[in-house]
Design brief:
68 residues, mainly alpha, single chain, globular
């Protein structure tokens, strides 16, 4: 699913590894989330949002036509 995790992570000046460490997942999982090949749980979405100081809407909101 499309998301804006990479944009938010870069704005927060975090590497994939730093974000992974902060939320308790692997760097590979961050990569898969950013690529849209892994759909994180709501809890993980919230942890990511808190870590990069963004809202769910800013990072994970997709319009109906955006579903792949």
């Amino acid at each position: 699913m499309k998301n804006h995790v990479k944009i938010a992570r870069v704005k927060a000046d975090l590497t994939q590894q730093q974000l992974a460490d902060a939320v308790g997942i692997s760097r590979q999982t961050v990569l898969r989330i950013e690529k849209g090949s892994f759909n994180p749980s709501l809890k993980l979405c919230l942890l990511i949002c808190y870590t990069v100081n963004a809202t769910l809407n800013e990072i994970f909101w997709v319009n109906q036509g955006d579903f792949e």
